Amino acid sequence: MKNIHTNFLAEYILKLTGEYASANRIHDVLNLSLSYTYTLANNNKVRNRVKNGRTEYNMEDFIKNLEFSYNNNVIDNPLTKEDFEVNNFHNWEARNDIEKYLEKLLLDELGQFTCIKDLVEMFKVSKTIWYEALEEGKIMYFTISTRKIIVTRSLLPFLREAMCEQY
Question: N or C: which end of the chain has fewer CB within 10 A?
Answer without folding.
Answer: C
